[in-house]
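A.,

Following up on our hallway conversation. Structure tokens first:
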């Protein structure tokens, strides 16, 4: 199963700016520099503006900052790669720190692959791309990096289009029109549904050990669904969450899956 690692919207871009390229950096170094932060939904409702939604021209708001596409040959085998990341521009908002942090984060990953090319080694990251969507005065940016069939690395960040401030998960939930408690409940239910979709129900398992493993994975999913959770709006304006789903019949292994919050 394809493994996925997520750097969250709840993680400050300023923190991620520490991930500057190092001459001897490896992929593990870069991933370890990303500081996942457990986010617990607060019971305190923060204020969400009720003002009219700001209309954005996404072609002006999100520009390509870096783009490189080429073919790399290692041991006689050709690998196509494509690396691209954005630069954001909001009217009357200073996004210098946000853009610098995105740039540093992406360049840290790209520098690992460039070093591998320079040293004649196989590259791991074959694609880096991004998506950008706006909803209820929230700009959601998702940067995804693909590492063949092994795993993908994803960083999601949500920004207020009025202030340029990075939003917490709780603020994104409120912007989507949910209360903190209701939003958390909906995300948990979506995680439960995804678990059942993937692994069925306990009646599908035969031996006591299999049933025990299933129930343990289900309980772990319900307990940890919001650990390392990222939230963002998709192209249709729907709120999506990347939640942790545990896998039965393994040693506490888990993947992250996208679910719709509704």
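Then the amino acids I'd put at each of the 262 positions:
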């Amino acid at each position: 199963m394809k493994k996925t690692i997520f750097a969250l919207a709840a993680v400050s871009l300023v923190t991620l700016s520490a991930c500057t390229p190092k001459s001897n950096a490896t992929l593990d170094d870069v991933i370890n520099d990303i500081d996942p932060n457990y986010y617990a939904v607060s019971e305190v409702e923060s204020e969400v503006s009720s003002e009219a939604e700001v209309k954005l021209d996404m072609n002006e708001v999100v520009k390509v900052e870096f783009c490189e596409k080429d073919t790399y040959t290692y041991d006689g085998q050709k690998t196509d790669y494509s690396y691209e990341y954005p630069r954001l521009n909001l009217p009357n908002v200073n996004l210098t720190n946000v853009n610098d942090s995105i740039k540093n984060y992406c360049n840290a990953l790209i520098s690992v692959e460039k070093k591998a090319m320079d040293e004649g080694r196989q590259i791991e990251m074959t694609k880096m791309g991004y998506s950008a969507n706006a909803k209820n005065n929230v700009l959601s940016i998702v940067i995804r990096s693909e590492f063949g069939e092994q795993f993908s690395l994803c960083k999601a960040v949500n920004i207020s289009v009025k202030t340029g401030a990075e939003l917490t998960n709780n603020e994104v939930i409120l912007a989507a029109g949910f209360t903190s408690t209701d939003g958390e409940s909906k995300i948990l239910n979506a995680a439960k549904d995804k678990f059942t979709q993937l692994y069925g129900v306990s009646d599908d398992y035969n031996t006591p050990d299999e049933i025990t493993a299933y129930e343990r994975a289900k309980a772990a999913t319900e307990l940890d669904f919001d650990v390392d959770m990222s939230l963002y709006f998709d192209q249709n304006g729907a709120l999506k969450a990347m939640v942790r789903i545990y896998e039965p019949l393994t040693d506490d292994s888990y993947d992250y899956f996208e679910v719709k919050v509704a």
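The helical segments are 13-16, 27-33, 58-61, 96-118, 169-175, 180-199, 208-224. Curious whether your intuition agrees with the design.

B.
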